[in-house]
Amino acid sequence: MWSTINNVLGAIDDFVWGLPLIILILATGIFLTVRLNGVQFSQLKFALSSIFRKSESDDGGELSSFKALCTALSATIGTGNIVGVATAIGVGGPGALFWMWLAALLGMATKYAECLLAIHYRQVQADGHILGGPFYTCEKGVGEKWPALGRTLAILFAIFGTMVGLFGIGTFTQINSITSAIETFSQTAAGGALSSVTIGGIGTYSTVVIVSSFILAVIVALVIIGGLKRISSVASVIVPAMAVIYFVLGFFAILCNASQLLPAFEAIFQGAFGFRAVAGGAIGAMFVAMQKGIARGIFSNEAGLGSAPIAASTAKVDHAVQQGIISMTGTFFDTIVICSITGLVIVMSGAWKPELGFSGFGITNAAFQMLLPRIPQVAISFILMVCLILFAFTTILGWDYYSERCIEYLSKGNMTPVKIYRWLYIAAVFIGPYMTISAVWTIADIFNGLMALPNILSLLILNGVIVKLTDDFFKGQRLYKIGYDFRNNPVTE
Prior knowledge:
Blueprint: H1 2-16, H2 19-35, H3 39-42, H4 44-50, H5 65-76, H6 79-92, H7 95-120, E1 123-124, E2 130-131, H8 134-141, H9 147-167, H10 172-190, E3 196-199, E4 203-206, H11 207-224, H12 228-256, H13 261-272, H14 282-301, H15 308-312, H16 320-349, H17 361-371, H18 377-410, H19 416-431, H20 437-461, H21 463-481
Antiparallel strand pairs: 1-2, 3-4
């Protein structure tokens, strides 16, 4: 049964993530980079220095820029950084990492643009809370000239956004990877096989997987009932702490094997252009590396997906550009920093090679163990397990929030469907471990691609608004430095 399902899902995935979508995503990043004069490069220093800066007014917004960023990062820094990179390299070879980097660098401009528009078009609901994101960008922005198109794109985005949360990034991939990490650690600690239970018609699973999935479902239920502020409070503590711990471990592994770093970069660049054929001929290998690298890169950093703008829209800022510039650092931290650590460790170790038989979390776990042989394997597995659990846990919380906002938009503020959805979400968390790794990641890829389409189209249509807001802000910044009060005397074309 699973082989048939996997074949069908694979065919759909190949269609959704075919050459047209890959070209569209890269072309959008290039187009916005050119239109915005390379904002992700020229303003990166300013963006990093702005993360902890407080708004000078309390007009609008629910969260500080930092908490809004952490809420977005809670949904991005997760399984994709540890397992997603491994699956991309495992299928596409080392070259997949190059395409992840390229997609991220271009995606920073995309993330900037979509989060800027989310602030610009956000709406204050009847009870005072903020609701914003691509659905309002499409409805209010695109819909200003083409109402029918704007509304259609908004509805499609909200539907696909709900599906990504329930069947893609939010539940199945996260909980599947968490229980896989727990099982791997338990086997290492026990030094052998674990007790298992056969579930009729589904398969045989270890007791550890069954118990851990139940416990995690209960914990998720307790947190998501608290809403945005509880999620943001948890994320603002866990995300930075775990990112630092994981970065230090990975950097130490790379430093201890510095002689293998140059060959790793050679393998990455050669693999990216098919010089080291992984899946047949050079062109075929290059396309597989490109497809998996870009798909997993977007899964991880979500640039162009349209999810981060939902969190960004809640930020307290004086100007839409301020949150756009801060939000684009999320892509930088996620892919250029965290994913690079994972990818380099995997390529340097060679753990990605199919003949070794590792998959998913097992690739990353084996890679760290190979590069750090003096550290007990059980200790490495434990650290990676904890990082993955906390990363993935916050991603589960973040995507519940995103999906709830999509449903709130579709239901026009009726919260009853949202409450029903929460229980469906919790159920999806519980059943996630019982799906195959291949099916889980393929489903996530499919919905990611579908969700990205309406969002990217809205960015292309509204590129003039993005440029206008950007120019106004930075002209104002330059004048402000020489004593011009641009808040009371806004700069216009």
